[in-house]
Amino acid sequence: MSSSIGENLKMTIFGQSHSAAIGMTLEGFPAGFCIDQEKLIQFLQRRAPGKNAWSTPRKEADEPEFLSGLVGNTTCGAPLTAVIRNHNTRPQDYSMLKDVPRPGHADYTAEVKYHGFQDVSGGGHFSGRLTAPLCIAGGICRQFLSDHGIQIQARIAAIGGICDEGEMTGSVAEKEFPTVSDERGVEMKKKISDAKEKGDSIGGIIECTATGIPAGLGDPIFGGMESRISAILFGIPAVKGVEFGAGFGVAAMTGSQNNDPFFWRGNQIETETNHAGGILGGITTGMPLVVRTAFKPTPSISREQTSISLSQKKTAQISVPGRHDPCIVPRAVPVVEAAVSFAVLDAWIGRKKEL
Ligand SMILES: Cc1cc2nc3c(=O)[nH]c(=O)nc-3n(C[C@H](O)[C@H](O)[C@H](O)COP(=O)(O)O)c2cc1C
To answer: Among 14, 28, 50, 71, which one is least packed by beta carbons within 10 Å?
Structure first.
């Protein structure tokens, strides 16, 4: 199982939804950086469950406990390891899933791969809960990048077909429901509560922008920024699509529409448009890096669905018990920021080595 990623920075994520703890190890992070613990906890709180109607009622404090890599709050160059203890576990909610796999979840594929030894409780190692340690690692990377003039911020771009409107600004990411348009946000929340009422769930899109990014990050062919960023984004459970800049829209454009004309702004080279999403040849142009991530509707729904009984080798009905997010998107906004921050810092460190 590969739960590690990165070239110059290496992140490993461990634990299961209902194990004693979940956590991360980050290797290669620059020594001498003072982590703002308060800011890190605030960042993790944006993802934490149990706070509002569009999140699972499972309550977890989600406070990181650093085991190594720090002297005081300053990184010392040794591998940085932090854990979050799991408290609010209810493994009994999941016992029947060993026989009747949830449609849309990883129960069936985990059964095939691990021959029945997998931890099914709360989705085990496949759980969305494992994005909390990703937020510890990525939250630290995001703080470091911010100190170096690179801001990474995301918003909810769409939920259930309702699209956000307006330009992203710095404060949007910090909102409890991060849309630019509050009106559109209200419509999206209504879509979520309608789905929840029907015992169903709903999906959506998160847009993340990195500004202040220098030109020249990333490598050609397989080390390009699109490859680096999407490899981490696709590690987030429930992600089914990633697009950069104009994304799939480029397929319907002509070259003259899609190409971003260059111009000089003083001594700086910019482009008039940004259909490339800040990346050409896998390398950053210096324009904002823009990436959109599509999340599927939460697979665990209380509405009855058709599955199979593995023991009885026949069709079975399933109505998933337990506590689940009716829509993953709002809680996943900081997770996307964390993933993009990790990929950008990994490439940034690589570029520093070249110069
Ligand atoms: C923040 C977050 C919360 C999630 N919450 C749930 C949940 O409450 N119930 C559920 O069935 N899936 C949830 N998921 C999604 C599943 O973990 C995911 O769909 C499953 O592991 C299968 O992986 P796949 O969708 O990538 O194929 C969540 C994902 C994230 C990122």
So the answer is: 71
What are the tens digits of pLDDT across the range 13-35? 999 999 999 999 999 999 999 99
Backbone torsion region of residue 286, taken as left when φ is above 0, otherwise alpha when ψ lies between -120 and 50, otherwise beta: left
Pocket test for ligand 1, best of 105, 192, 301, 307 (most atoms within 8 A of CB): 105
* Rounded CA separation 138/92 (Å): 32
Task: Tell how far the Cα of 270 is from the centroid of ligand 1, in angstroms.
Answer: 39
Residue 89 reports pLDDT greater than 90: no
Say how many Å lie between the CA of residue 174 and the centre of ligand 1.
Answer: 23
pLDDT at 156: 98
State yes or no: pLDDT of 213 exceeds 60. Answer: yes
Cα separation, 121 vs 126, in Å, equals 10
Ligand 1 centroid to Cα of residue 127, in Å, is 6
Report the nearest-CA residue for atom 28 of ligand 1: 128
Task: Using DSSP, state whether 206 is helix, strand or coil.
Answer: strand
Query: Does 49 have pLDDT greater than 80?
Result: no
- Which DSSP string corresponds to 295-334? EPPPS--SS-EEEEETTTTEEEEE---S---SBSHHHHHH
Q: 254-273: per-residue pLDDT in tens?
A: 999 999 999 999 999 999 99
Residue with tokens 């077909």: 161
